[in-house]
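Appendix B, record 7
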Amino acid sequence: MKHCQWCDKQFNSEISYQIYCSSDCRDLATKEKIAARYLVTRRQKRIGKQRLCKSCNKDLSIYNDDTLCANCTVSPSSVVKALKEIKDNLK
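Structure tokens (predicted):
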């Protein structure tokens, strides 16, 4: 018995080098590997190119997939927290 590399189910292998229990698991694993390679390739293409934050014009890292830097990205929970603090200070 072998364990599927994707879903970790046990299966009987007819071929010694088989690592996935089904073609569906093999296809899903392949799609994930392709997507990961695409991200690496896209980031490598950014090397040497200047990318600027659309809000503050700071340089963006090659690892930042957004058009805004971390300082300009606002999380909704931070906004709610700030509004609550403002309301409390007005009382």
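Remarks on this record: The first strand starts at residue 2 and ends at 3. The helical segments are 23-45, 76-90.
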